[in-house]
Design brief:
The complex is a heterodimer of chains A (325) and B (500).
Chain A lengths: L11 H8 L1 H17 L6 H10 L1 H15 L7 H18 L4 H25 L4 H20 L4 E2 L3 H8 L1 E2 L2 E2 H19 L1 H11 L1 H6 L4 H27 L1 E2 L7 H11 L11 H20 L4 H27 L2
Antiparallel strand pairs in A: 1-4, 2-3
Chain B lengths: L6 E10 L2 E11 L4 E5 L6 H8 L7 E6 L2 E3 L4 H6 L2 E4 L11 H5 L14 H14 L15 H14 L4 E5 L7 H16 L3 E5 L3 H7 L2 E6 L2 E7 L5 H9 L17 E8 L8 E6 L3 E6 L5 H8 L9 E4 L2 E3 L4 H6 L2 E4 L3 H5 L6 H6 L14 H14 L16 H13 L5 E5 L7 H16 L3 E5 L3 H7 L2 E6 L2 E7 L5 H8 L7
Classes of the chains: A mainly alpha (325), B alpha/beta (500).
């Protein structure tokens, strides 16, 4: 199993399929099963709908991928999306702030939460799970306070365009997701910073002894994750035209699921954007398929949990087998 | 034999792969006898002990306890047979009481089937009082000094009714007073007819506390003498007197100016006021026993540990080294003794590992110069004949020798001025060893300044131009090439203040 996408094989596509053969087969099987049960699945409008519905998850998953690559986790993502969304809605509606200022604040809120996570984890050595659990609670609490328990409507139509516009009939947020996936891929595969993230996740001490500034390399990704959540919040509140205190709830689950199903090891150091992309599609197909089949949404939670567990067990078993060599 | 000895290990052999670590070693311990096990690092002491403790399975030979043959194939069975091994690293649960630790895994219960903490505390306290130690069974282990924690291990052994107690370097982290207390306790155990195997490098301790000294060298028993008639110099000779191997490459090089110069370097815990220097084209050895703090010294020079004073000069100019990056940017690199923990990212491939230190050569801002990167990997693969199936092979799957070559390549790609090699041939097969020596010799020929920390005396003697000997955080000796003898080095390495 190769860890990085630095391969210089003549055929990149073939290499990609080889690397992700298991998940790709899984995805195809799923799609076939869902198609058999509901003919509405394999249609262009449904596919576009599926991609649009999962765009924010794609963006968040890029952040989650990096956290898990470092051998850590960020469970504050959902609450940060909520906080950013509610602040966006509050500013544009209640304060009538200009659009650029509102957009900037949404992103900034995310970056600040991310920076708190990053400093706590990288410099103050708080375990990532605990640090992000704390900021998750802080973020969710602030969201409740700002919303005061009621849904804030966004009435500024130009602001809403950020999430509702479309290009050539395709929702703009699909493009956002595409751009973020691409940028993350570039960062992880084409920059020194990306290599350092893999090194840090693989063996932090060895990375440090190799002269990597491990604290900084550990901290910055959390700011990046925060920014992505800020963007996620912005997209949600503009797309829905409103923001409620529950916005973003459970997003961390979907992101972790996509990353883990995509073959990223929970112990860090191994995982790819390409794999995560397939993980995202699998999660999307499950959600979409179950919706089309009119299965109670609570069952989706159950399925996602089972799939995460299965993916992690698979990874652990593979690792153990590798160690016996 | 008229009377069965308490412990009788006969003809014990063990190999790892093709490496014969123990070759027909026999060891006897009588009841109430304290037997010292003496030998250099790698002589086979710990392997022998691990076989006794049921951690390793011997390839040949047998173990008898009180004349009865035993098959000790697990640690639990060793325990059932009254064998207790007190390891160098203390294995206690710090946030629990002494009593809880002593009874860990065999907790006493009351009639209701619940843990009877009071009775455990009472029984523990009884042992403590018997040994005349000033401890309370209800104290938390984390409140104790390392030395006292060592005593808790002994209490644990007594409480479990140990017949044979093995102490592996028990005094390595004890203060002078604690050592005396330990000796007193050993005396008490002896009266209780417990057989003790005592492992230590410190000869004077062996003279103080043991009845018999068994010397191991290269997996063979080379001496078994009563302590009363033993002579210190003889013991050292027995310990190190092996033939020198011929696989060293050593050419005469021109030695240049001073490269690294360290004055008065101190560390909070490990060493004080250390002075040394290295020169271009020179191989400087650092010899000493385990615990001499050589690795700690080198890690401090490399910026991994914080110093509490002293000066580091490079090419005559003082430099500031606050972390590993500062050292690397100044051209000082450290090849760790812990290849897997500190040297490599095992889950990643060879190419990745080799490029990690000089990544900026291949990635300027965005985009990877894959051509330059593969060329670099290929050039080292050829130069050091590294056996890999492809640059994408996982480093974790390579042999020790090949892993070490990957680590060396990673650092050499940075063109260092000073390269610190910490135990460069540890865990490496003989063939690769010779190749590593050749690489080291080549580097010196190219004018690189080499510092080699090594616990293998023949390696130091055959490779170095000059060597420092350390003992307990101090440099106790400096020897030139023509003064190198194993005896001279061992003398400085076992040099303690009490002997002055």
């Amino acid at each position: 199993m190769n860890k990085t996408q630095t391969k210089s094989e003549p055929n990149v596509v073939v290499a990609y399929f080889k690397r992700n053969v298991g998940t790709i087969i899984g995805l195809i099987l799923l799609m076939v099963i869902v198609s058999v049960y509901t003919p509405k699945f394999m249609t262009v409008p449904n596919m576009l709908n599926l991609l649009r519905a999962n765009s924010v998850n794609a963006i968040i998953s890029c952040g989650m991928l990096i956290a898990i690559l470092m051998g850590e986790i960020d469970i504050s993502v959902g609450s940060t999306v909520g906080l950013s969304g509610i602040i966006g809605a509050y500013m544009i509606t209640n304060m009538e702030a200009p659009i650029p200022v509102t957009v900037l604040c949404c992103l900034l809120v995310g970056a600040v939460i991310g920076a708190i996570n990053g400093v706590a984890i990288a410099y103050l050595k708080v375990p990532a799970f605990v640090a992000t659990l704390a900021t998750q609670s802080i973020g969710r609490g602030l969201t409740e306070i700002i919303s005061n328990g009621i849904t804030i409507r966004v009435t500024n139509d130009s602001f809403c365009k950020i999430g509702t516009a479309s290009i050539g009939g395709i929702s703009v947020i699909i493009f956002y997701a595409g751009i973020i996936l691409f940028l993350t891929w570039v960062m992880l595969n084409k920059t020194r910073f990306g290599y350092y993230i893999y090194a840090l996740g693989g063996n932090k001490v060895a990375a440090q002894y190799s002269g990597v500034n491990v604290k900084l390399v550990n901290m910055i990704p959390y700011v990046f994750i925060g920014l992505l959540c800020g963007l996620g919040g912005l997209i949600w509140c503009t797309r829905l035209g409103s923001a409620a205190a529950t916005l973003g709830q459970g997003f961390e689950m979907d992101a972790i699921a996509a990353v883990v199903i995509g073959g990223t090891s929970m112990s860090g150091g191994t995982g790819t954007v390409g794999g995560t992309f397939i993980g995202l599609l699998i999660i999307s197909v499950i959600t979409n398929g179950l919706n089309l089949m009119n299965i109670n949404s609570f069952w989706q939670e159950v399925f996602k949990g089972i799939i995460i567990l299965a993916a992690v067990i698979f990874d652990v078993v593979r690792k153990n087998r590798g160690q016996k060599h | 034999m008229s009377e069965a000895k308490l412990l009788q290990m006969t003809g014990i052999s063990k190999s790892f792969g093709s490496n014969l670590v123990l070759d027909g070693v026999s060891l006897e311990v009588g009841a109430g006898e304290v037997v010292a096990l003496l030998g250099e690092n790698g002589a086979g002491k710990s392997t022998l002990i691990k076989i006794l403790g049921g951690i390793y399975k011997s390839d040949g030979g047998e173990i008898a306890i009180k004349g009865e043959k035993k098959d000790i194939h697990s640690a639990a069975i060793a325990g059932e047979n009254g064998i207790r091994i007190i390891h160098q690293e203390i294995i206690l649960v710090p946030e629990r009481t002494i009593a809880a630790n002593v009874f860990l895994g065999r907790e006493l219960r009351n009639q209701a089937g619940l843990v009877d903490a009071k009775r455990m505390e009472r029984e523990t306290q009884k042992i403590i009082d018997d040994l005349h130690i000033n401890l309370r069974a209800g104290q938390l282990v984390s409140e104790l000094t390392i030395g006292m924690q060592q005593l808790v291990e002994i209490i644990k052994a007594i409480s479990a009714d140990a017949q044979i107690v093995v102490m592996d370097e028990p005094t390595s982290s004890l203060s002078h007073g604690e050592v005396e207390m330990l000796f007193k306790i050993i005396g008490l155990l002896r009266e209780k007819n417990v057989g003790i195997i005592y492992i230590s490098h410190r000869l004077e301790e062996l003279f103080a506390v043991t009845d018999r000294i068994v010397v191991l060298r290269d997996g063979k028993m080379v001496g078994d003498v009563p302590t009363k008639t033993a002579d210190k110099d003889d013991l050292i000779r027995l310990m190190v007197g092996r033939e020198l191997n011929s696989y060293y490459t050593r050419n005469v090089h021109k030695i240049g100016e001073k490269s690294l110069e360290v004055t008065g370097l101190s560390h909070e815990k490990y060493f004080k006021e250390v002075n040394f220097y290295a020169r271009y084209g020179e191989i400087v050895g650092f010899a000493g026993l385990v615990g001499a703090r050589r690795t700690e010294l080198m890690k401090t020079v490399f910026g991994a540990f914080k110093n509490t004073g002293g000066e580091i000069k490079l090419d005559g100019k003082p430099i500031q080294i606050k972390n590993q990056r500062d050292a690397i940017n100044n051209g000082i690199v450290y090849v760790s003794e812990d290849r897997r923990g500190e040297g490599l990212i095992l889950d990643n491939d060879v190419e990745f590992n080799m490029g990690l230190v000089c990544l900026s050569d291949f990635i300027k801002s965005v985009g990877v110069n894959k051509k330059a990167w593969s060329e670099m990997v290929e050039s080292y693969r050829k130069k050091f004949s590294i056996k890999i199936t492809s640059p994408k092979q996982r480093t974790g799957t390579l042999s020790g020798g090949n892993q070490q070559k990957v680590v060396l390549s990673k650092w050499l790609a940075k063109n260092p001025k000073v390269i610190i090699l910490d135990e460069p041939t540890r865990g490496i097969d003989v063939g690769s060893k010779a190749e590593i020596y050749e690489i080291i010799d080549q580097l010196a020929a190219n004018g690189v300044s080499i510092i080699m920390v090594s616990s293998e005396l023949p390696e130091v003697i055959n490779m170095c131009n000059r060597c420092y000997v350390m003992c307990e955080g101090k440099i106790t000796g400096e020897l030139l090439e023509d003064e190198f003898t194993q005896e001279a080095i061992m003398k400085y390495a076992t040099h303690r203040e009490s002997e002055e």
